[in-house]
Amino acid sequence: MQKHDASAPDTKYLTAPGPVPVERFVRLSGGVQRAPALYVTIYAIIWTLVSASLDPTVPFDAVEAFNWARNAEWGTPKNPWLVGFSMWPVLGLGGKGLAVYWYASHFAAVAIGMLGVWHLAQRLSGDRQLAWIAMLSLHLSGAINIDVLPYNDNYLLVMLWPWMLWLFVRALLDSPRYWPAFAAVAGLAAMTKYSTFALLGAIFVVTLWTPQARRHYRRPAFLLGLVIFIALIAPNVVWLAHHDFAAFRWVDDQITLRLNARALYGALSAFYPVAILALVLRVSGVRFTRPPVDARIVAGVVILPLLPILLYFTWHNGGRISEWLQPFAVPLPAVLMACVQPATAARSRRTARWLPAAGVLVLAGYVVFLSANLRNAGQKFSGIKTASGMLEQRWQARYHMPLRYVGHDHIAAWLTFYAPGNPRLLMRWSAQRRPNIYTNAIDEAHVRAHGALLLGQPGRSCRRTSFTRTLAQWPTLVIDAVETVPFSYHGGASPIALCVAYIAPEREYR
Question: CA 105 → CA 81, 138, 145, distances in Å?
Answer without folding.
Answer: 16, 18, 12
